[in-house]
Amino acid sequence: MKSKILIGPVNPKNIGSIPALNRAFIDGLSQEYSFYFFNVSRKYGKSNVSKVNLLNILYFLKQYSKLIFLVLREKPKIFHYAITSFWNFEKSSFFLLTAKKLGSQKVVGHLHGGSFDVFIDNLKEKRKNRVIRTLNKIDIIIVASVFWKEFLIKNGIYTKIEVVNNPIDSNFVEEINQVNKKRNNRFLFVGALGKRKGFYDILNVCKNFNEEFALDAVGSEDRKNDLNKINHIISSNNLKSKINIVLSEKMKLEEKVDFFSTRSVFLFPSYNENFPLVIIEAACAGMPIISTKVGAITEFFDHLQNIYFVEPGNELQIKEAIDFMINNPKERQRLGNAARELYEKRLSKKIVMNQMRTVYQNS
Question: What is the pLDDT of residues 78-89, one digit of tens each?
């Protein structure tokens, strides 16, 4: 009989990086394990999900009731749930420890918060100690890289920590491997449209270019009113010919494959990350990448070997990186090929699924 694993968060359309990542694990290991889904999708307040407010409290109570029902009904061997930052940390840890008390044999917390280091480093001592005690009650913590494992150990986490790299959608991998890549001269950004992902920095840098630079930005509003601010910057600085906004919570497969196979460079100057799926997707697609040295990215990529690194918020470096890519087509091709080679050697589906399989087997 297959072992039961209750996993979350998931949602029917796999909207969001964490549900998409969980779906990849489900698809990759469903022949070996029986997965049950902890669906925490919501209709309202998506841009304020990390804040404490009445709406989030009501959603929490609804989700908590659902969790109790699922754990008592299915009696899973493992409850696998995301650990994120800020107010969501308390919610995540409460779910995990509740499942443990209700009979889940093991609880596995999967660290996803790209700002988790900022979250921990800025906590007051009393709350920080409480967070550390809570993490040490979780049976296993999964992290996306050695960087995050060392960070947790440095901060007093002694529970079992396992490294499992982030998987990407196998359907995307299959399609991107087959499609004929005919790249135009447009750059590509995919992510939340706001400050966290460095999108305002991109807008500021765009002012310094003429028609040689054009960008497709695919994503949804990060914070309330971000979209209004972005549209104002674009219109007031005559950037409409350079910046094309494509509003999308989740791209359709064919749309994603088209963007990643036809655009020339992936641009992602984010301020905080864990190990972003879009970087792995760009590498899989053989795109040259401009990114910041954040999270686990530096553990896999090296400047000018398989990526072009810039510092978060450094608009001069972002401009220089864009200039480099525009003026050096052979280097673009080389960096894209090197990124693809790295994906195949270190981040492929087979490698990542073996890592997760080992975690489940040892739980």
Answer: 999 999 988 789
